[in-house]
Design goal:
Blueprint lengths: L1 E14 L2 E6 L2 E7 L6 H13 L1 E3 L9 E2 H4 L2 E6 L21 H17 L3 E4 L7 E15 L10
Parallel strand pairs: 3-6, 6-7
Antiparallel strand pairs: 1-2, 1-3, 1-8, 4-5
C-alpha cells in the first residue's frame, strides 16, 4: 500500500458536477492498494498518517504536531496509479495494484481506522474519475509505503 500525504490549507474532491468531499486544514491522502494489502496494513498506515508530526508548533520546527494534535481533517482519495511500474517502456504497468474488489474494502478500512482515532474524514468515490483541488501548505508532501514499515532505518 502506498499513501501520498499532502499537508493542505484546504482540499476538495468532486466527480462531474457532484461535490464528494472537502476539508479545511489537514491532510490529503492519496491511497493506492497493492496486491497482498489488507485491513491490518491499512490500520498501520492510518495510524502513521494520523500520528506523524507534519504540522508546525510553537518553535522554529515545521514538524512538531500531528494531525491528531492539531484537530485537522483528512481527505482520502483512492488512486491505483500510485502503484504504477514505469521501469520499462512508455506505458505504466499497473499489475501491482490490487483489483477493485480487493482494493475498495482496504481503502474503506483505512478510512474507518482514521475515524476510529477521532478524525473527521472526507472521501472521494472509489473507482470514479475525480477532480481534486488543493491548496498545499508548505508545501509538505510525504510518501509512505507499507513495504517500508518494518524495514530498518539507515544511518
Amino acid at each position: 500500500m502506498r499513501v501520498v500525504i499532502q499537508r493542505v490549507a484546504r482540499a476538495s474532491v468532486s466527480t462531474g458536477d457532484e461535490a464528494l468531499g472537502a476539508i479545511g486544514a489537514g491532510l490529503l491522502l492519496f491511497v493506492g492498494v497493492g496486491t497482498g494489502d489488507d485491513a491490518q496494513v491499512a490500520g498501520r498506515l492510518a495510524a502513521k498518517c494520523a500520528e506523524m508530526r507534519l504540522f508546525p508548533g510553537g518553535s522554529d520546527s515545521h514538524f512538531e504536531r500531528s494531525l491528531l494534535e492539531t484537530g485537522g481533517e483528512a481527505l482520502v482519495v483512492s488512486q491505483f496509479t500510485l502503484l504504477a511500474d514505469t521501469r520499462k517502456g512508455r506505458r505504466p504497468s499497473l499489475t501491482a495494484a490490487a483489483p477493485p474488489d480487493v482494493a475498495e474494502p482496504v481503502v474503506a478500512a483505512l478510512v474507518d481506522h482514521l475515524r476510529a482515532l477521532g478524525l473527521e474524514v472526507a472521501t472521494g468515490r472509489f473507482g470514479a474519475m475525480m477532480r481534486v483541488e488543493l491548496v498545499n501548505d508548505g508545501p509538505v508532501t510525504i510518501v509512505l509505503d507499507s513495504a517500508d514499515l518494518d524495514r530498518p532505518r539507515r544511518g
